[in-house]
Amino acid sequence: MWRSNIALEDFLLFSERVYDRMFELHNLAVWPLHILTFAVGLFLIVVVVRPRPHLIRIALALLSGLWIFVAVAFVYGRYAQINWAVVYLLPLFAVVAALLAYLSARKRRPLMEHPSDISRVVAIGVLLFAVFGFPLLAIISGRPFWQAEFFGVSPDPTAVATLAFLSINRGPRGLGVMLIIALWVVATALTLFTLGRWDFFVVPLAAAICIGSWVLGSRRLTNTTG
Amino acid sequence: MTIDRRFVLRAGLVMGPLSSLISLPVRAQSPALMTRRVASIDQELPLVGLGSWITFNVGKDAKLLDESTKVISAFLEGGGRMIDSSPMYGSAQDTIGYALSKLGKPKSVFAADKVWTSSQSNGPTQMAETQRRWGVDQIDLMQVHNLVNWEGHLRTLAEMKADGRIRAIGITTSHGSRHEALEKVMSSHEIDFVQLTYNVVDRDVEQRLLPLAQEKQIAVIVNRPYQRGALLRRFEKQRLPNWVAETGAKSWAQFLLKFVVSHPAVTCAIPATTRVDHVRENLAVATGTMPDAALRRRMADYIRQL
């Protein structure tokens, strides 16, 4: 007979203190890269406002590069020091980066040129949150500024911004990438929930909004064209 | 890393390599810790050890590495000896190795670690890596972590012990799981230690495993004596019994830990902490009054009615 009192928190390998300081050390190590990633975030917003094929391709390529950077510098270089299990999620980052690069490079015109107004508003709103709002979560929670998570530097805001950008893409491949990113979203939400964080629902909520927006946008497109 | 009882009784007085970190007044005030004998290796060990699950998994964070060093320093300064870790615990082994190196590789440490791989053939490589990360000449006790491939690993460990590469072998479980399998191993194999979960709430092991350990003269290491802090959070707002002084405890932490280490079958409990004051509070449990069987029943009854 198997008896056990194992709880979800027993799968956590690290404490909240160590988790928070990991972001602080990482931010200090890569600063002032944040200025560049803020610029990329602003560029993504501009592209959603004025989606032109060549700009969309550049944005997708930049996102691909950021996923590789976050995977190597943060997930492998830092997070894996305290969480050996996260190494098993590295292929997810590689697949997302590869698919974003593919979407950027393929000859067919990107399916982002004519997003609906609602899709566009949702994408811009979520992008604004990912780039500018996400770091505020740390401050609202009473953590030091340097323990904040930044787009292009940490995985969660990068994932949220990518989901927002892809939510105006009407192609099924875009949805495929979004669903792969959702796997990371689940992992990070479970981690934050287990750490007892009040904001554990933020990233899944943002992901749900983006995926929901994609679904609604696709239906609208189907109805319009069908 | 051999040591005799005389050293244990002088714990807190002699820590040559640690001398720069130990203040004289503290040394003079540190009473010797109560010990229990591990019969199979003729070794006395203090009743309170130091776990490393989560607390020492700090990565390469220099500030937290130094804070962990202070915890380990206070532990050794107070007479503690057994430090327990596992390859599963992230960077905990590296943190311990860092601290021991900073503290001048103190000889008093009783190094306890685990083999944790489903492959028997990978075991020796993993254990060699463990020893490298600790930076010690020898891991004193090597245990099979959570019974993972225990039959294969126990064969390897028995060979290593026979060759003198380790001093003792054991097997572990936690969270009250797989007690039947643990009982089978204890009954059928020559092991020196068993590690299991025991606290004032999780008391299943009192029925069969602890008596069996006594009968077979297997030393018992207790993990999760505070249920990873859950018991402290649960009881900290409750009033300690007005007879708490009879137990020798001065706080809830000490009350809970006294209950664990006062069981005659228990050799050592290994609470983990990130705080120096908590280390000292834990070590103090191995001094002074120790509850007898009647008082232990009273302690358990008190907890039950809260």
Kindly describe this structure:
- The complex is a heterodimer of chains A (226) and B (306).
- Chain A is mainly alpha-helical and 226 residues long.
- Chain A contains 8 helices and no strands.
- In chain A, α2 packs antiparallel against α3, α3 packs antiparallel against α6 and α4 runs antiparallel to α7.
- The mean pLDDT of chain A is 91.
- Chain B is of the alpha/beta class and 306 residues long.
- In chain B, the strands form 2 sheets. In chain B, strands 3-4-5-6-7-8-9 form a 7-stranded parallel beta sheet.
- The longest helix of chain B has 16 residues.
- The radius of gyration of chain B is 18 Å and the shape is globular.
- The N and C termini of chain B lie far apart (44 Å).
- The N terminus of chain B is likely disordered.
- The chains are: A mainly alpha (226), B alpha/beta (306).
- Chains A and B meet through α1 and α3 of A and loops of B.
Summarize the entry for a quick read.
Chain A has 226 residues and is mainly alpha-helical. Chain A has helices at residues 16-30, 33-49, 53-82, 90-105, 117-140, 155-166, 172-195, 202-225.
List keywords for this structure.
heterodimer, A: 226 residues, mainly alpha, B: alpha/beta, 7-stranded parallel sheet, two-stranded antiparallel sheet, 40% helix
Span between N and C termini of chain A? 59 Å
SS elements, strand count of chain A? 0
Structural class of chain B: alpha/beta
Tally of DSSP β-strands of chain B: 9
Poorly predicted runs of chain B are: 1-28
**Helix content bin of chain A:** over 70%
SS-derived structural category of chain A: mainly alpha
Task: Write down the Rg of chain A.
Answer: 18 Å
Q: Identify the biggest protein-protein contact and residues per side.
A: A-B, 22 and 24 residues
- Strands in their spatial order, largest beta sheet of chain B: 3-4-5-6-7-8-9
**Average pLDDT across residues of chain A?**
91
Work out the strand percent of chain A: under 5%
Rounded to an integer in angstroms, the radius of gyration calculated over CA atoms of chain B is 18 Å
Oligomer: heterodimer
Please summarize the sheet with the most strands of chain A.
none
Q: How many helical elements of chain B?
A: 13
Main β-sheet description of chain B: 7 strands, parallel
The succession of helices and strands of chain B, N to C, reads HHEEHEHEHEHEHEHEHHHEHH
Share of helix among residues of chain B? 25-40%
Helix and strand element order of chain A: HHHHHHHH
